[in-house]
């Protein structure tokens, strides 16, 4: 299987840090790499060919041989995420929507995605991959339980262009102790 995972570009916002990247951090294109996609890649079978493209640091391929195109996204990325899902679906690819916004607003994706992966992926992504290989993928995979962080694999950092980021992120807990009103994580 060939899997293409895409992190959509961020619009100019709090999340893009564009001014800082452009003026303070020369030679870098974004602050943080898509750790979630690198973790998802690590959950795939080793015989899968997995590619990660972060539109914040590189251009997305207009054509691909991927069997599956997965596009993640936060609320701020939702418009671009939908565009990418529709584009690749129109090209004949099986498209999967995931990320925090798809987890919160699953119904917004049923018209543009073949499958929606909602919630933490450690357990349900493996189920999706197995179902896809059997030719029986479901339209929805929804994790409602608690995922043990010990079940989260080492992310596939080798698939990221780390030299284009200012930071390399690591995950050491789930959730956040703060209650910022602009953040969707507090309701997940």
Provide mean pLDDT, rounded.
Answer: 90
State the distance separating the first and last CA atoms. Answer: 31 Å
Work out the helix count: 5
Shape type: globular
Would you report the number of β strands?
6
Radius of gyration: 16 Å
Q: Fraction of residues in helices?
A: 10-25%
Low-confidence stretches: none
Beta-strand content bin: 5-15%
Strand adjacency order, main sheet: 2-1-3-4-5-6
Order of helices and strands: EHHEEHEHEHE
Give a short account of the largest sheet: 6 strands, parallel
Oligomerization: single chain
Structural class by helix and strand composition = alpha/beta
What does this structure look like?
With 188 residues, the protein is of the alpha/beta class. A six-stranded parallel sheet has the order 2-1-3-4-5-6, with helices on both faces. The longest helix is centred in the middle third of the chain and has 13 residues, at 78-90. The two termini are 31 Å apart. The protein has helices at residues 18-23, 35-43, 78-90, 100-104, 124-133; strands at 2-7, 49-54, 68-71, 94-97, 115-118, 140-142. The relative contact order is 0.20. Helix content is 23%, strand content 14%.
Provide tags for this entry:
single chain, 188 residues, alpha/beta, 5 helices, 23% helix
